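Why should sequence recovery work at all? Because a backbone constrains its sequence more than one might expect. Tight turns favour small or flexible residues, buried strands favour hydrophobic ones, and helices have their own preferences. The token representation captures these environments compactly. In the example below, the structure is given first.
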């Protein structure tokens, strides 16, 4: 694939610009711009029916000793947003559970960049707005759930993107990923947290990138277990 590093650099710059603003709502805006850039590049610069093995790959976002509800809930929509899949894999050296994104290599790198950015934003905002460990955790889970809702809405828009053969870009890339990697499976469960509902709702609203006051009904969503 041509100019892969240039695309990744632009994605990183978009996320860095949003970080400099200090706004909790800039992440989704930057991510949409970055994803639109990626879509334009992949539609015009490659034929998805002729993807080579070295175009596919994995990228790690690091991990923890155990799986966390927050990171598991956040990782799935970030993977979906970037046409990847994500799995936990035990690191033989550190012993930690690494989050590994699988897909087209350029997509996995962008997924890691976005995941780390959103994760850092969630931790930063949770400390700023919430008091107490449980409420901060509830905020972070809410943030991840709000991001998931944003991604569901955005994917509806992206389904309209068609390759030269008339196939949906999202569907075509999903088939490629499943062809090269064992398909990932995600748990379907409601949001789980030990803090207050208001803290969850605050995080959800920030994750949605909208100042909405509606209540969250705990709709089921995918997350890593």
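From this structural description, the recovered sequence reads:
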């Amino acid at each position: 694939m041509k100019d892969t590093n240039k695309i990744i650099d632009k994605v990183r710059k978009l996320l860095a610009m949003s970080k400099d603003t200090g706004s909790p709502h800039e992440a989704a805006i930057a991510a949409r711009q970055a994803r639109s850039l990626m879509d334009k590049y992949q539609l015009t610069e490659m034929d998805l029916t002729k993807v080579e093995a070295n175009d596919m790959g994995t990228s790690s976002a690091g991990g923890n000793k155990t799986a966390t509800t927050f990171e598991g809930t956040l990782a799935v929509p970030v993977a979906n947003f970037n046409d990847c899949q994500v799995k936990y894999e035990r690191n033989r050296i550190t012993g930690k559970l690494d989050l590994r994104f699988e897909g087209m290599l350029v997509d996995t790198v962008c997924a890691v960049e976005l995941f780390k950015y959103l994760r850092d934003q969630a931790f930063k905002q949770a400390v700023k707005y919430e008091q107490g460990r449980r409420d901060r955790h509830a905020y972070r889970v809410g943030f991840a759930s709000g991001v998931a809702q944003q991604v569901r809405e955005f994917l509806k828009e992206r389904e309209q993107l068609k390759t030269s053969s008339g196939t949906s870009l999202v569907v075509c890339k999903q088939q490629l990923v499943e062809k090269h990697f064992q398909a990932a499976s995600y748990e379907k469960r409601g949001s789980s947290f030990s803090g207050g509902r208001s803290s969850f709702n605050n995080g959800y609203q920030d994750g949605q990138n909208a100042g909405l006051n509606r209540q969250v009904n705990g709709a089921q969503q995918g997350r890593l277990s």
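A few observations help interpret the result. Confidence is low (pLDDT under 50) at residues 210-220.
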